[in-house]
């Protein structure tokens, strides 16, 4: 039941159907006065809200327009009862109860409110908190509440507020618009301030959610309310002063914003770029030259302006004599006032965005009543007649087509505005863009090519980021314990690049490419192989040719002096075969130099394996010949007939054939092939010959090692033979060097990188070849060329004592 003294409507008119209205035509002085040391007093509704009066007159204007219409609700007159909400939720709810209960003399004490239905619809209130209370109060009675300025997204819930409608878009859309506006100007680090009520809390929650989807981070979020003690506002101001973000997003009502601006002015807190919801741009009392110092250059959303033909004349024609019963509690006018000379919020018709929403709200109720009366598809629902027709869209007399979605909200369309100051010191809201939620995603947000004035009266877009954008070649690494927008820029690792600004990860270059020094471009890697064009390759080629020439020269000397005793005594046939194999050993090293190909890879390893076995087989044959020759000089010995020239040739051929078979199997089963090694070095590609079969490669080396070991052992055993016959000690020394070289070759080969692997192998071939050439043939050449007197049969068969 309704308790307390009934309120009298500010404006009323009888009719067949009476529509209710609640507007804040006065301010609650305790909540309005911008000072912080007030003492709580009883509620005082004394400060006149001229904009609220304009809203009320706009409702009257629309009702009179409908009553004069022959198309909408013909033969039915609409009346109205308009109460003052006084910017106080409880008074708004009380006014709503007055409307649904009817006049006091028509009520019975303790009578249920539901039995004295009075108004079929209610228009109001301007703030979300009051409207939520009204919608919750009238919801059980299925009385529609149509608001012109309550934007809280929470009111879109059909489950909680089934009878609520509005002619202003939900904050859900302007929150998205603000998030896209912030992202458009590259602000990823912002602070937020909100009113600590349904409007601010719900609106800011939606903004933060939308902003995070756009990659925007929130440094701080502060809540203020007009009744907070001054210390609370001082704390908010201190947070703003200490912040590193230069952009503040505000979802603050006009009254709360006035308190905050007042404190910011006292402390001279300037230079911050404000981005605000529609409240800042709908209250012209804030748009002063003094406040411009704080919030000048602010951008945000504003309700789209509208034209209302005839409204200005209607507002100016208000006269006490026309409505003697209305406003009886207000001081009477003399009747001689000329409203055309007055410039205030009541007479101002330059910005009728919200006022037009009141006008559309009246038409929404009128069209609903008209549709219910003319409906062809009616049904009974909880003692009420309802129309099952789904069309809830309508057109006003001024030509505006109003569309509602399934939640009872109109389609969102906003102007994006910029708070500027003219040369004359007049503040103005310049349209810089449009947000239209009816358009497809990606086309809703459009900016105009108009100059924008930023905070501090600057023409350059301010910057507000926690961390500067990471340049190409670097990636973002989030700082521990901080939002995603705070990060360090880490240079991409070698072999990785980013060619975009603000990349979160680096991309790997293709295998054939490497990253440049700036790490923003993949460039072709250097191709590395042992070439004749470089110093190391040239040196190795020279030594290879020198070895070949030395071998040929030695062979020439032996051939020229082939009839001399020293040549004959040293088995000239094996000596020439050994020199031939040594020349091949020197020459095979050349196959390791140059760009690897299929043929060069197969040739270099097999040629090396076969020629070295041929060489070692000859050395082994010579060692056996020395031993056999010595044994044949003993009495009764007939050993040499078992190891004559034919047996020597067969031995060399057999040993070499085994190596040839190993190499043939290697080439058939898994031959060596050219390979691009991209793993050993990041910055270059190594062209090398892959072994194909590692087992085959080490089998070739192992076989060479086996033969050299036999040669070394036999030569070592023959080292104490008489000097005149002793070639074994030179073979021993050569095999010692040979084995030392190849034993050290294996770890050096495995550990050497790139082209140095090939160089190590060539070095081993050349050193071991030179060792055989000089150790075996140098002493003989010395005697042949420099000591010819020793090259006699007598010297070679000199007597020796054998024990």
Automatic annotation (TrEMBL):
Which residues are listed as membrane-spanning?
535-561, 573-594, 606-630, 650-669, 695-718, 730-750, 762-785
Its main subcellular localisation, reduced to a broad class, is membrane
Which PROSITE patterns has this protein been placed in? G_PROTEIN_RECEP_F3_3, G_PROTEIN_RECEP_F3_4
All copies of the G-protein coupled receptors family 3 profile domain together span 536-800
Instruction: Determine if Cell membrane is one of this entry's keywords.
Output: yes
Q: Which key words are in the record? A: Cell membrane, G-protein coupled receptor, Glycoprotein, Membrane, Receptor, Signal, Transducer, Transmembrane, Transmembrane helix
Q: Which GO cellular component terms, listed alphabetically, does the Swiss-Prot or TrEMBL entry include?
A: plasma membrane
**Does the keyword field hold Metal-binding?**
no
What Gene Ontology molecular function terms does this protein carry?
G protein-coupled receptor activity
Compartments, record wording: Cell membrane
* Topology within the bilayer: Multi-pass membrane protein
Q: Which PANTHER family match?
A: C-FAMILY ODORANT RECEPTOR OLFCD2-RELATED, CALCIUM-SENSING RECEPTOR-RELATED
Q: Which family does it belong to?
A: Belongs to the G-protein coupled receptor 3 family.
Q: What is this protein called?
A: Extracellular calcium-sensing receptor-like
Q: Which organism is it from?
A: Erpetoichthys calabaricus (Rope fish)
């Amino acid at each position: 039941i309704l308790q307390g003294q009934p309120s009298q409507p500010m404006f009323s008119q009888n009719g067949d159907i009476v529509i209710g209205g609640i507007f804040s035509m006065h301010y609650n002085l305790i909540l309005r006065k911008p000072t912080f040391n007030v003492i709580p007093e009883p509620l005082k509704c004394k400060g006149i809200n001229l904009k609220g009066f304009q809203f009320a007159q706009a409702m009257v204007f629309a009702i009179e327009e409908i009553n004069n219409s022959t198309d909408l609700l013909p033969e039915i007159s609409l009346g109205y009862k308009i109460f003052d909400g006084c910017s106080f939720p409880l008074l708004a709810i009380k006014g709503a109860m007055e409307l649904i209960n009817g006049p006091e003399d028509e009520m019975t004490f303790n009578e249920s409110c539901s039995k004295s239905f009075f108004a079929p619809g209610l228009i109001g209130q301007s703030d979300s908190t009051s409207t939520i209370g009204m919608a919750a109060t009238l919801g059980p009675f299925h009385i529609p509440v149509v608001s012109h300025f309550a934007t809280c997204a929470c009111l879109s819930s059909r489950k909680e507020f089934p009878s609520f409608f509005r002619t202003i878009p939900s904050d859900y859309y302007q929150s998205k618009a603000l998030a896209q506006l912030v992202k458009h100007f590259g602000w990823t680090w912002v602070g937020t301030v909100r009113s600590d009520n349904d409007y601010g809390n719900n609106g800011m929650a939606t903004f933060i959610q939308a902003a995070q989807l756009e990659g925007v981070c929130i440094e701080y979020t502060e809540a203020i309310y007009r009744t907070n003690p001054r210390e609370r506002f001082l704390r908010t101001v201190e947070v703003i002063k200490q912040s590193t973000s230069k952009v503040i997003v505000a979802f603050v009502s006009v009254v709360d914003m006035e308190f905050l601006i007042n404190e910011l002015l006292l402390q001279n807190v300037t230079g911050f770029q404000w981005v605000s919801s529609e409240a800042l741009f709908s209250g012209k009392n804030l748009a002063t030259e003094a406040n411009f110092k704080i919030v000048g250059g602010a951008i945000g959303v504003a309700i789209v302006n509208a034209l209302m033909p005839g409204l200005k004349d209607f507002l100016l024609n208000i006269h006490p004599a026309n409505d003697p019963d209305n406003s009886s509690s207000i001081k009477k006018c003399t009747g001689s006032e000329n409203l055309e000379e007055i410039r205030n919020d009541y007479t101002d018709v330059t910005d009728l965005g919200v006022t037009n929403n009141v006008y559309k709200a009246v038409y929404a109720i009128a069209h609903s009543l008209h549709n219910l009366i003319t409906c062809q598809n009616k049904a009974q629902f909880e003692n009420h007649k309802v129309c099952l027709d789904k069309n809830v869209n309508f057109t006003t007399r001024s030509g505006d087509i109003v569309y509602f979605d399934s939640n009872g909200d109109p389609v969102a369309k906003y102007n994006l505005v910029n708070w500027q100051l003219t040369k004359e010191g007049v503040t103005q809201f310049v349209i810089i863009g449009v947000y239209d939620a009816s358009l497809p995603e990606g086309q809703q947000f459009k900016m105009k090519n108009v100059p924008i004035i930023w905070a501090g009266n600057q023409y350059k877009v301010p910057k507000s980021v926690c961390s500067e954008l990471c340049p190409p070649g670097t990636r973002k690494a989030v700082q521990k314990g901080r939002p995603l927008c705070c990060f360090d820029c880490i240079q991409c690792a070698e072999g990785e690049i980013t060619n975009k600004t603000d990349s979160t990860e680096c991309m790997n270059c293709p295998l054939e490419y490497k990253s440049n020094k700036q790490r923003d471009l993949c460039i072709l890697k250097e191709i590395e192989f042992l070439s004749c064009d470089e110093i190391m390759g040239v040196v190795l080629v020279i030594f290879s040719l020198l070895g070949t020439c030395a071998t040929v020269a030695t062979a020439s000397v032996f051939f020229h002096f082939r009839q001399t005793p020293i040549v004959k005594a040293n088995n000239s046939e094996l000596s020439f075969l050994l020199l031939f194999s040594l020349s091949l050993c020197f020459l095979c090293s050349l196959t390791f130099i140059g760009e690897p190909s299929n043929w060069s890879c197969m040739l270099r390893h097999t040629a090396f394996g076969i020629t070295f076995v041929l060489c070692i087989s000859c050395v082994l044959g010579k060692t056996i010949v020395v031993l056999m020759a010595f044994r044949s000089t003993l009495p009764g010995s007939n050993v040499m007939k078992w190891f004559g020239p034919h047996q020597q040739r067969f031995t060399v051929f057999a040993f070499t054939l085994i190596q040839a078979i190993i190499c043939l199997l290697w080439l058939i089963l898994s031959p060596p092939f050219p390979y691009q090694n991209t793993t050993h070095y990041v910055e270059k590609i190594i062209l090398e010959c892959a072994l194909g079969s590692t087992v085959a490669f080490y089998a070739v080396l192992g076989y060479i090692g086996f033969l050299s070991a036999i040669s070394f052992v036999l030569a070592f055993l023959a080292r104490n033979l008489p000097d005149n016959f002793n070639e074994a000690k030179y073979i021993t020394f050569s095999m010692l060097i040979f084995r030392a070289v190849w034993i050290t070759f294996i770890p050096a080969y495995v550990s050497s990188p790139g082209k140095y692997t090939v160089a190590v192998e060539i070095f081993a071939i050349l050193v071991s070849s030179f060792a055989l050439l000089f150790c075996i043939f140098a002493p003989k050449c010395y005697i042949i060329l420099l000591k010819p007197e020793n090259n006699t049969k007598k010297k070679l068969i000199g007597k020796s004592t054998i024990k």
